[in-house]
Write a structure and sequence with these properties.
With about 550 residues, the protein is α/β, with parallel strands linked by helices. Helix content is about 30%, strand content about 25%. Strands 10, 11, 12, 13, 14, 15 and 26 form a 7-stranded mixed β-sheet that branches. Bound molecules: flavin-adenine dinucleotide (FAD).
């Protein structure tokens, strides 16, 4: 087979047992030999040589199958190096039952796509379905050479920081140039831009976007922003774990499903450096990795995913539910799942607003980490998100100080994280402390801290402040449409009835009460953090997304 770019594609298999190696290659050749070049190797080193040769010839590798137990270099070590040569190739590890836990480790280490237990007989049942699906995924996206998007910005430019965050969260590879380094200056000159209009993003085909909006960027980096239809079975609003879960289950169960996301898929979880308590990932998983997998999985089942589309209204038009966008256009569906989660609360202290993006950051710990090397930085907040950011940033920063308003972390942070923090020497925790001021010339330089027990204040040097002080649902746009609690969380099922002192919500016309995750309007469901009384965890958000789809089916059956 030739790839869309006209180049031949290879499938490579490596196993140190010549008999097994030949058998895998034979089975692969039988099914894929006409379309693909099957390359066989009997050690990690020779397989790496083969991969380099393929690269030099300008050919592509679609799938790599590696045996786990190989002397000298095991399958995981091999795949780690193979990824550097052909990052787009999908990866399968062949393991014996006894090595299952090593294979699970590999899911994180080498972003493994699949592990296949030996023996793989009959291949029609065990091998081919896996390779078929990985080839399909590869064809859809990964055959593309990594395009080089370049970005010129400045560390203290708030929009530069936001664009970096946007590209990173959408997993768009880019190269960063500071506007005060020679190559940055050359690129700015070539683009006809100046220092006052940063950032400039240069797309792989050479187009320069000066101070681009998120929507402009999305359009240029291949993210869908316009719906393909005007009527769907299901519209999911919000692309965090709950929304991705709902889109995946909706599409996989045959519903015409579209997911609409305001910025980038992943939501809060997408910004987490390491989620340690999500089932099936004993060594933790980064939010970016989990998001990438979920998005690919949802797309595989046919869910449409739109990014940079802000939903600003929900209208009830008979049996149709109409979702309005900020630009005035709308799409309709039989049912809607609200999965809009929560957004960071802003820190109210003089100077903070002006320095946001220039030393003060909300939840953007990941993209700013490199800039914190050898610096003294502060984190405000006592919940898990703050703890995770501290662990992550402490690898680069000279010191990380966590500022907590309460008297201890115990009530707000998981025990495992408190233990981790205690074991890292350059992390310290200051309890009973609040930020009451921020100052600096063009970027953050100093913070004023107040001890809320004694009232004493102190001014400290600070290079960066990361704010994780809880979050609120931004559901004002649902005013007058669905019932919410006093803090803006959307009420569903039994909570709606309880809030109405046992009565069904006003305007409810059906003779059944609202289903468990159903809002005060039939056919509108809520999943994840936006729902009143929800658990505020990745696992529960994903679970509620799946459960909401089950209730959508129940609703549609009776429509
Ligand atoms: C840094 C960090 C670390 C965390 N670590 C963990 C952890 O280790 N374990 C754990 O279990 N939980 C963790 N959490 C909590 C977990 O991430 C959340 O509970 C989970 O993401 C909630 O998922 P959700 O889909 O309901 O909402 P969110 O993740 O908040 O996603 C909502 C999405 O909806 C979009 N949206 C909002 N309004 C609109 C609109 N009007 N139009 C279009 N789109 C809209 C938002 O842009 C967002 O992408 C962490 C949270 C943070 C911030």
């Amino acid at each position: 087979m030739t790839s869309p770019g006209g180049r031949r594609t290879a499938i490579l298999t490596v196993d140190d047992d010549p008999g097994v190696s030949r058998a895998v290659a034979r089975d692969l050749r039988r099914r894929y030999g006409e379309q693909h070049r099957i390359v066989r190797a009997e050690s990690g080193a020779t397989a790496l040589d083969a991969l380099r040769e393929i690269k030099l010839r300008g050919e592509l590798v679609a799938v790599i199958l590696a045996d786990y137990r190989m002397p000298e270099m095991n399958g995981i070590e091999f795949l780690e190096q193979a990824m550097d040569i052909h990052p787009g190739a999908r990866r399968i590890l062949l393991t014996a039952y006894a090595d299952t836990s090593a294979a699970i480790d590999a899911i994180n280490v080498v972003d493994l796509d699949h592990y296949l237990l030996k023996p793989w007989d009959p291949p029609e049942e065990k091998l081919y379905p896996v390779v078929d699906s990985l080839l399909e995924t590869w064809l859809q996206s990964d055959h593309r050479p990594v395009p080089e998007t370049r970005m010129v910005g400045h560390r203290w430019s708030a929009r530069s920081s936001a664009v970096r965050e946007f590209l990173a969260r959408n997993q768009v590879p880019y190269r960063w140039y500071s506007s005060d380094e020679p190559e940055g200056e050359r690129l700015l000159a070539a683009a006809g831009a100046d220092l006052h209009r940063l950032p400039v993003v240069i797309t792989p085909d050479g187009e320069a976007l000066i101070e681009p909006t998120d929507a402009e960027l999305a359009g240029h980096v291949g993210l869908a922003t316009a719906p393909a239809k005007d009527f769907y079975d299901l519209i999911v609003i919000g692309g965090g774990p709950a929304g991705l879960g709902a889109a995946l289950y909706g599409a996989s169960e045959g519903l015409r499903t579209v997911l609409v996301e305001r910025t980038a898929t992943g939501g809060q979880a997408g910004q987490s450096s390491r989620i340690e308590n999500y089932l099936g990932f004993p060594d933790g998983v980064s939010g970016a990795q989990l998001t990438d997998r979920a998005r690919r999985q949802a797309a595989k089942f046919g869910a449409e995913v739109l990014t940079t589309r802000d939903v600003v209204g929900l209208d009830i038009k008979g049996s149709a539910r109409s979702v309005r966008f900020a630009d005035g256009t709308a799409i309709d569906a039989h049912a809607v799942i609200l999965a809009t989660g929560v957004s960071y609360r802003t820190l109210e202290a003089p100077g903070v607003d002006e320095l946001t993006g220039a030393g003060v950051y909300y939840g953007s710990a990941l993209t700013e980490a490199a800039a914190c090397a050898n610096q003294d930085i502060f984190i405000v907040g006592g919940a898990n998100s703050a703890g995770q950011a501290a662990v992550y940033l402490a690898k680069a920063a000279r010191s990380v100080t966590i500022l907590v308003r309460g008297g201890s972390l115990e009530r707000s942070m998981s025990y495992y994280l408190i233990q981790q923090l205690a074991a890292i020497p350059n992390i310290s925790v200051r309890v009973c402390t609040e930020v009451v001021g921020a100052e600096g010339d063009g970027h953050l330089e100093k913070l004023t801290l107040r001890d809320n027990q004694t009232g004493q204040t102190e001014t400290v040097d600070a290079s960066a402040l990361f704010v994780f002080i809880g979050a609120a649902p931004l559901t004002g746009w649902l005013d007058g449409v669905v019932a919410r609690d006093g803090r803006g969380f959307v009420l569903t099922g039994p909570d709606l009835v309880a809030a109405g002192d046992g009565k069904l919500p006003g305007g409810w016309e059906l003779d059944r009460p609202p289903y468990h995750l159903e809002a005060s309007v039939p056919g509108v469901f809520v999943a994840g953090d936006a729902r009143a009384e929800s658990a505020k965890r990745v696992a529960s958000a994903v679970g509620e997304g799946a459960m909401a789809v089950m209730l959508v089916h129940r609703y549609l059956e009776k429509l």
